[in-house]
Specification:
heterodimer, A: 248 residues, alpha/beta, Rossmann fold, 6-stranded mixed beta sheet, 4-stranded antiparallel beta sheet, globular, B: 297 residues, mainly alpha, ABC transporter involved in vitamin B12 uptake, BtuC, two-stranded antiparallel sheet, two-stranded antiparallel ribbon, 4 strands, 71% helix, 4% strand
């Protein structure tokens, strides 16, 4: 068995005095599509923030490609090959689509490759070619999400992390995004997907981690998770007792 | 009333104020810091002019380069030594630090040079006057207009056509996300301070050129002007700062010619009333701009 691409061990993180993660451990292998599920406040986004260096964990380690990257600056972690599509898309509204994509390529810019990358991006997202010169802020929600994903892809990430890519999108656009994520995996990307929409996420991922109250409550294949966990109770029931009885 | 002389005066005053305001707002955009040490970069540039001309006896063009370089270096060093260590702390820590830097630099000059003003020699062309279509104006007024046009064109090219400029605009909008693109935080912040110092240095040549002297508190007045101009024009975009600079120049000149002679010494008081009106009725300034309030983490 080869070494995992990403190993998160016993990660603890806080916002001020509020402890958000109580020791999360997870692993990702190259080529996998893995989901991080859980209700609001379960610690999904905090986990991604800690991996990308935006938030400094209190304890625990993050190892990527055999190298510990805990507490490194976000800009250095991107250079090592982890890109995040942040929650709420976070595209630069004042900048044109072109400038957004150019910044996406900041960490690994090579003129010839950049041109070729743009061509590929336009094949995946024809709308971005149409909107190339327009400010990102004028794009619709779905188009902005595509731009956010395209912008992250421009860095040629070894690991792509998506935080709630379907949030606030129409059902049709959500379908598109999920098809796209699956396609990115088939094209060779390793993807960590954080999703509220657990049913949809479980439809495309290989494995999933279920977080609750800052801890990993369940880890296993998508099939296992579907079978053993009442997803609805996790998200809507708020009945933590019930979900804690899940056999691990 | 509105003749060519008034127009040239207003454009030259506005140009100078626009440069001052632009330098202040560039750092604000990225760090969300109103840098109260900004006036000191102008003051240091003035001493750079004085030192290089009087002590080193350099030719006039070299004294200007020397003065501007002194401002750039001071701005960069204050970023490294004073602002960087407190950057991730509170916004209050940053602003108090900027006051500390300001007081430190003023007193350093006071002790190391003199509390008294020093005469600064600028090329004779600065004080010559020319006659254009019946309007008499100092040549330096035309020089500042020309210089400002060149600086604004270059700045606009930098911000739109270079990756550094794009990254700086992105950082002013969403700082953390910009870092997630792989843009080093220190790169955009240092760049902002260096360009801010450059603008302070260029503006200083013309500011000092009006009085031909420099003293430890030379920086106070241009800082105030830059601050007021950004309040009026808008703190949230470079365009706002430039517009604010020109509006300030225009209002100031209108007050100068409309106020009776006995009131002219209260000109600044009238300017402050106008600023208060802006704060009451249009606190975001003339240009709303795209900077967000996200702080550097």
């Amino acid at each position: 068995m080869t070494m995992p691409m990403l190993t998160v061990e016993n990660l603890m993180a806080s916002y001020g005095v509020v402890r958000a993660l109580h020791g999360i451990s997870l692993e990702m292998n190259e080529g996998e599509l893995v989901a991080l599920l859980g209700a609001n406040g379960a610690g999904k986004s905090t986990t991604l923030k800690s991996i990308t260096g935006v938030l400094r964990p209190v304890k625990g380690t993050v190892t990527f490609l055999g190298e510990e990257i805990t507490n490194r600056k976000p800009e250095n972690i991107v250079k090592r090959g982890i890109s995040l599509v942040p929650e709420g898309r976070e595209i630069f509204g004042q900048l044109t689509v072109e400038e957004n994509l150019r910044l996406g390529a900041f960490s690994s810019y090579q003129r010839d490759r950049y041109k070729a990358d743009l061509k590929e991006i336009f094949e995946l997202f024809p709308i971005l070619e149409e909107r190339f010169g327009q400010p990102g802020g004028l794009l619709s929600g779905g188009e902005q999400q595509m731009l956010a994903i395209a912008r992250a892809m421009m860095a040629h990430p070894k690991l792509l992390m998506l935080d709630e890519p379907s949030l606030g999108l129409s059902p049709a656009m959500t379908d598109n995004i999920f098809v796209l994520i699956k396609r990115l995996q088939e094209m060779g990307s390793t993807i960590l997907l954080v999703e509220q929409n657990a049913e949809r996420a479980l439809g495309i991922v290989d494995r999933a981690y279920l977080l609750a109250n800052g801890e990993v409550e369940f880890a296993g294949s998508a099939e296992d998770l579907k079978r053993k966990v009442d997803i609805a109770s996790v998200y809507f029931g708020g009945d933590d007792e019930a979900s804690c009885e899940v056999p691990l | 009333m509105i003749d060519l002389e008034f127009l040239i005066n207003t454009l030259s005053l506005g140009s100078l104020y626009a440069l001052l305001a632009l330098g202040l707002v560039l750092v604000y955009g990225i760090l969300k810091l109103v840098n109260f040490a900004y006036g000191e970069y102008i003051m240091i540039a003035g001493y750079g002019l004085y030192f290089s001309a009087t002590v080193l006896q350099l030719p006039w063009w070299a004294t200007m380069l020397f003065g501007v370089a002194a401002a750039v270096l001071t701005s960069y060093l204050t970023e490294l030594a004073a602002f960087r260590p407190v950057r991730t702390k509170s916004a209050n820590a940053l602003i108090v630090t900027s006051f500390a830097v300001s007081i430190f630099l003023q007193n350093a000059v006071l002790i190391l040079v003199s509390p008294r003003a020093r005469a600064v020699q600028l090329p004779p062309i600065f004080s010559k006057t020319v006659n254009i279509a019946g309007a008499t104006t100092p040549v330096r007024n035309l020089l500042i207009i020309g210089t400002t046009i060149v600086v604004l064109v270059l700045m606009s090219l930098l911000m739109k056509k270079t990756v550094l400029g794009i990254a700086m605009r992105a950082a002013a909008e969403k700082f953390t996300t910009t870092r997630l693109m792989g843009v080093p935080a220190n790169l955009v912040i240092s760049a902002a301070f260096i360009i801010s110092g450059l603008l302070a240095g260029i503006a200083s040549i013309f500011w000092i050129g009006r009085s031909s002297s420099v003293d430890p508190i030379t920086g106070a007045a241009p800082l105030l002007i830059a601050f007021i101009a950004t309040v009026m024009g808008g703190m949230h975009s470079p365009t706002g700062a430039v517009v604010g600079g020109f509006v300030y120049g225009l209002l100031f000149n209108i007050l100068s010619i409309t106020l009776p002679a006995s009131m002219i010494s209260y000109r600044d008081a009238f300017m402050f009333v106008i600023v208060v009106l802006f704060l009451l009725f249009r606190p975001e300034g003339i240009i709303k701009g795209g900077y967000t309030e996200e702080r550097v983490g």
